[in-house]
Amino acid sequence: MQDIYYVDGKFVPEDQCLIPAKDLVVLRGYGVFDFLVTYNRRPFYLQEHVARLANSARHIRLKLNHSEAEIMEVVEETVKRNPHHGESTIRIIYTGGISSDGVTPEGNGILVVMVAARKKLPASWYTKGAKVITNRIQRFIPDAKSTNYLAAIYAMEHAHQQGAIESIYVDRQGRLLEGTTSNIFFFKDSRLVTGKQDILPGVTRQVLLNLLKEHFALELRDIHYDELAGMNEAFISSSHREVVPIVGVDDIIIGQGRPGACTQKAMDIFRNYVSKYGQGEV
Fold first, then answer.
1. Which of 214, 229, 258, 278 has its CB 3.0 to 4.6 Å from that of 40, i.e. a possible disulfide?
2. What is the per-residue pLDDT for 108?
3. Residue range 204-217: mean pLDDT, rounded
4. Contact (CB, 8 A) for 233 and 256
5. 2 Cβ contact partners less than 8 Å away, ≥ 6 residues apart
6. Do 132 and 179 contact (CB within 8 A), yes or no?
7. Claim to verify: residue 36 and residue 90 sit in the same structural domain
């Protein structure tokens, strides 16, 4: 059964989801998007994700012709039109639109909502932990989740070659910023440490910070690469991955080289929360 997408005012089978070749998202990689998942078919923090989409558009000066409320309604309707899914991933895209000179936005972008079945990730990531690598890259306009993913694709190809599940961006000052599609956290002597600036404001990241501040002392600050060897535990967070323990960064073993107690507690707290979220209890 084909998934049903929303594109430019219509709900269509996925093989009929068409974007003009002259759209700036095709010609220049100019557009914004956001990504979220469902729990018990309830989109997780939909309002916050749509608000971030609008914020991304403001940062790259892309005009949206839909209100945030309208976008939310479209997302919810698209999920309803895909009842064959258990849980779903949701991708919201706003293109740059067709430009008469091929470079200047003209305020005619297209809203696209793509819903697909959510796939299970390897259980070993959560039981044994995973490895990440670093790349000396800093995203242009880090507050914006744009469709220009050249740096991320390059970094992830490098990660896969090294047997890693993610690549963490490190800037010229040696600061660890964020992953290609995730945020990174560390535990240092039971304190939860994560970046403060020059990163995409992760929705899952903020949910975790709100949940974990009741259990751990928080430090939001710059984290330098030379601190890695002294970190006790690490994990990454994202919508689809949720909380994944990290046991190695490049050739550096984190802590004991296995998921630690603090990370396990963070995983349990988050899983309990999203279970309640899916039941409408929070």
1. 278
2. 98
3. 97
4. no
5. 13, 14, 15
6. yes
7. yes
